[in-house]
């Protein structure tokens, strides 16, 4: 019972802290890369209090429910958007034996619950009673349908190579030469993950100039903050999953007892790459987004899966 409580508390603390750290990192990385002055001043030294200032701002704003909204759907959407990522985080191992829930089908579980998180955006688009929000929600649905397939196929390639659906088992089976063997799958997985999180350059559902922030147009205050927190939590889950599947998880120089440090460093590195992509690439058009998925990522993921199967059988 004590071990269960410790695991639950550990996952909860990680879920509350890690997304905030990613949010703070995004402020600072974007400030440096785009010469933004504002985020570097709040609180004095290096703008350390910028995230605190944002939190105070969201708390002070009135939480408004539009008259034409479906109130129950509108209010539940932020919760549906954020909670699945906490469940996903529980199944991602930090080190041998350091995991919230070591599931035999952990990979299947994480991918499944990540897909549930997108329902929050769909509910927000439908429940807002706003045509721009509805249009953004439909874009979310189209994007999810396109990028879920390459996302799952690239992850399946690693599972075939490791001979396991357990994330702990995959991390144990990982070898450094997988960095070359599974490199196409890594690229496909990362790009598809960005699209599922609606991160730039795949932020068509929230395009400011077209659909006025899409599903989240009518949200204010803490409800809007929960959607932002869900996005940062999604980055943590994507970075953690990328680390375990393609970067060896806790594998690194030194004893296995410091493996958790390597996991955290790799997750931090992938998170910074996610932020760097946001700063560096412009938003794609809807036709470009669909073309990349069906004519680019899906064929590459299928070829990678076939080559992995051949490699496992032959070697």
From TrEMBL:
The chain crosses the membrane at residues 6-23, 76-95, 107-128, 149-171, 177-195, 224-247, 259-281, 293-314. Keywords: Cell membrane, Membrane, NAD, Quinone, Translocase, Transmembrane, Transmembrane helix, Ubiquinone. Its EC number is 7.1.1.-. It catalyses: a quinone + NADH + 5 H(+)(in) = a quinol + NAD(+) + 4 H(+)(out). It is a multi-pass membrane protein. The keyword NAD applies. Coiled coil: none annotated. InterPro entries: NADH_UbQ_OxRdtase_su1/FPO (IPR001694). It is found in: Cell membrane; Membrane. It is an enzyme of class 7 (translocase). Pfam families: NADHdh (PF00146). The keyword Transmembrane applies. PANTHER family: NADH DEHYDROGENASE SUBUNIT 1, NADH-UBIQUINONE OXIDOREDUCTASE CHAIN 1. NDH-1 shuttles electrons from NADH, via FMN and iron-sulfur (Fe-S) centers, to quinones in the respiratory chain. The immediate electron acceptor for the enzyme in this species is believed to be ubiquinone. Couples the redox reaction to proton translocation (for every two electrons transferred, four hydrogen ions are translocated across the cytoplasmic membrane), and thus conserves the redox energy in a proton gradient. This subunit may bind ubiquinone. Belongs to the complex I subunit 1 family. NDH-1 is composed of 14 different subunits. Subunits NuoA, H, J, K, L, M, N constitute the membrane sector of the complex. This is NADH-quinone oxidoreductase subunit H. It comes from Kribbella pratensis.
